[in-house]
Specification:
The chain is of the alpha/beta class. The protein has nine helices and 16 strands. The strands form three sheets. It has a six-stranded mixed β-sheet with strand order 1-5-6-2-3-4. Strands 12-11-10-13-14-15 form a six-stranded parallel β-sheet, with helices on both faces. Helix 4 links the parallel strand 10 and strand 11.
Length: 345
């Protein structure tokens, strides 16, 4: 665990002021950064220290879920957000003060809060712990190791002193004053195909935090240009599928327009822990796919895991709209980080 001083209250602290030399941005572009790990790694590589602001309590409405985080470095760079823009400048200024004096601070905003100059548009009340993880290298290495291994990792954050501890499998319930958050690997979308809908998914999915794995049997030697594809494989489908690790944080969708390829993909996906499985095509083709799976011995419960025709029915017509309908379907079921408020004293 890290070693910090007891948490002070923002109510009794002197109101921090954002440095005059650095104007607060007119547009909240920092709020588009939902994955803070690569940003923290970059800051560490550039020799910066950082503080984190963690949303640890919510009463009533809140525009951000419990566990949302914002990061601020010693140069004033900001990433992530914890509210709807009402408190971010104040939180960032507090973070600079935490970096200056090493003391974590608990912030209290909204209805019933003693901080009278900040009110939330949603009408709720939120608690935010601003703290420093200390050595960014140690902190980010723990998160990166779990991510690269595609494992979840739990972080216990002590609200009294801002200390933290990581564990792959916590052995006990969190104690009093401990905010527990489970971080899961980024969702992975495995696509099989090479049509315009596939390309639209390759383009859109990373914007929503998905890593994209693209399989195109006998396809070009290089992935589609300008597409943020994490991994591309143009080998025979059986070889690519045999070596592909489909974990509980992966979704598998076939857009191959070939019934044999579709069947091979669905068979492999149904034998895995994939959180979502889908196949593009008409209702008639879907019925044929399901009948073939029954003939292979798959029971109805397993076959029901397959979304075919893939995507929500939103009247989609073009490739971009069809891709959006599939992503809407995935967002409903993908695994997400979870957080648990600390128990009272």
């Amino acid at each position: 665990m890290t070693d910090t001083s007891p948490v002070r209250s923002a109510v009794t602290a002197s109101p921090p002021v954002w440095p005059v030399r650095q104007a607060w941005p007119d547009w909240p572009v920092y709020g588009l950064d939902s994955d803070l790990l690569p940003i923290l790694e970059d800051w560490h590589a550039r020799g910066h220290r950082a503080a984190l602001a963690t949303l640890v309590s919510v009463c009533g409405s809140s525009p951000r879920p419990l566990g949302s985080e914002m990061a601020v470095n010693d140069a004033g760079e900001v990433a992530g957000y914890v509210s709807g823009g009402c408190v971010e400048a104040s939180v960032a200024a507090e973070a600079r003060q935490v970096l200056a004096n090493g003391e974590p601070v608990m912030l209290d905003y909204g209805t019933g809060s003693p901080v009278l100059d900040v009110r939330l548009a949603c009408g709720g009340r939120i608690g935010i712990l601003v703290w420093s993880p200390g050595d960014l290298g140690i902190y980010t290495s723990a998160l990166r190791g779990a991510r690269d291994a595609r494992h979840a990792i739990t972080r216990d954050l002590d609200l009294r002193d801002g200390t933290y501890r990581f564990a792959a499998r916590p052995s006990s319930e969190p104690g009093e004053h401990v905010f527990r958050q489970r971080h899961v690997p980024p969702s992975r979308l495995v696509l099989v195909g090479g049509d315009p809908v596939t390309l639209a998914l390759c383009r859109q999915a990373p914007m929503l935090g998905f890593e994209v794995v693209l399989l195109r049997p006998s396809g070009p030697p290089e992935p589609p240009p300008g597409m943020p594809v994490t991994h591309y494989d143009n080998r025979r489908l059986d070889k690519a599928l045999n070596e592909l690790r489909i974990d509980p944080y992966s979704a598998v969708y076939t857009l191959a327009h070939d019934m044999d390829d579709d069947h091979a993909v669905l068979t492999a996906a149904l034998a895995s822990d994939a959180f979502a499985i889908g196949a593009l095509g008409s209702k008639r083709k879907a019925a044929e796919r399901f009948q073939r799976l029954r003939a292979e011995g798959f029971d109805e419960d397993r076959i029901e895991r397959v979304s075919s025709p893939a995507g929500h029915d939103i009247g989609a017509q073009g490739p971009q709209e069809i891709a959006l309908s599939i992503l809407a379907e995935l967002l409903e079921s993908r695994p997400r980080d979870s957080a648990r408020m600390a128990s009272a004293a």
